[in-house]
Amino acid sequence: MWLKRLGYSVLLLLSVPLGWLGSVSGFFALAFITDMIPLLLLSGVLVSVLLTGWLSWSACHGLFIRPLLQRGLPVIVTGGTLFVVGVITSVHVFQPMAITYVPKESTFETVYWDLPTGSRLAYIHIPAEGTAHPTPVILLHGGPGASSNFTLQPEDQRLASAGFNVYLYDQVGSGLSERLDDITQYTVDRHVADLEAIRQEIDAESMILVGGSWGGTLAAHYLAAHPERVEKVVFSSPGAIWTPAFAEGEIETGSSGNASSIVAEFATLRWVVAYALQQINPTAAQNLVSDREMSAFFQQIVGHVIASDVADCDTQDGVRELPTVSVIPQGFGYYANMMTVASMSQTADPRPVLVNSKTSVLILRGECDRIRPEVHQEYREIFTYSTLFVVDDVGHAVNRSPQYADILSAFLLEQPLLLEPYQSEIALP
Prior knowledge:
The protein is of the alpha/beta class. It has two domains: 91 residues, no CATH class; 302 residues, Alpha/Beta hydrolase fold, catalytic domain (Rossmann fold, 3-Layer(aba) Sandwich). Helix content is 45%, strand content 12%. It has 14 helices and ten strands. The strands form two sheets. It has an eight-stranded mixed beta sheet with strand order 1-2-4-3-5-6-9-10, sandwiched between helices. The longest helix has 29 residues. The C terminus is likely disordered.
């Protein structure tokens, strides 16, 4: 008899945590059907009440306690469980995160392309000086979900002085460009379609693409889709051509730019719930946490990750290190980042097409880059007409090198590149 009473007592105690688990399960289970947050919340409440109520009622009747307690105790347990769950969700899930979003600022007057893809993209055009080269240069920023630097950089001025029309734009969902109402439309294919629409918008027969980090990945996918529209490509510390090929990830283990540990440090329950919803029903995640709020959280993470990107190499006691750099990112788009990255696994592998490419390619890698060397080695192996160089004393942001503008213009003007310190290709395993 005492074993039975002990079992019912344990069941009564378990009715509370099982009720919590039931509320979570009910919330996420309905997300497979609807993206309406009130309905998801109602589902969680109903499952919690039914599960906790039934378990506590069964336990109380099994304990043969007084009839008054048999009726009242389940109500107290169920009500208490619902109250605690309600307080936790109200404070930690439905209360907006206390983070300020930093919008992008530009030193140029913002102009837009309204593309047939439905994207409205902010851009700047730096006109060529003198006789213009027939092929414009399109700079592709990293991220995804980051933004282009709408300030005049040395490489921009150098290329314009060399006779190239230079275009910088914020990819859809980031910077000063408009966000998409349907976040599931943030895909690699959408970015490729936008780039092709840009080519048509500026009436260019072909383009020269300069892609940094994720921008390099985008350039590779565009080249695979429209090989006849690309004259040359510069891959500046590019991300993987096709991320599923690197199961271990693109980033060096233990890198100071490792986002996973930084996310774990700053993650809140509200973000965790939204992230879990995103895997089931992205629209429901957006209904719970807006793009602006999620982007504010994203910028907090990115501020720590890109500190290593923009830092120059430094030697401390004979060991290469990346000193801390204060960086305040602006205009980042969380959903543009997460959904584009997620779409990569559904995107066709472009490498079988790219191995036949006859496009002239320059690959640059920062000496202290956090990207795995194997990622950049693959670029060199796939592109027949390519050269890979290490840029000394910089990390992932190769364009911070004082020689970057010279390297870029020399390659585009087909001038010699084998100048110190860029006279040898990277030694990779």
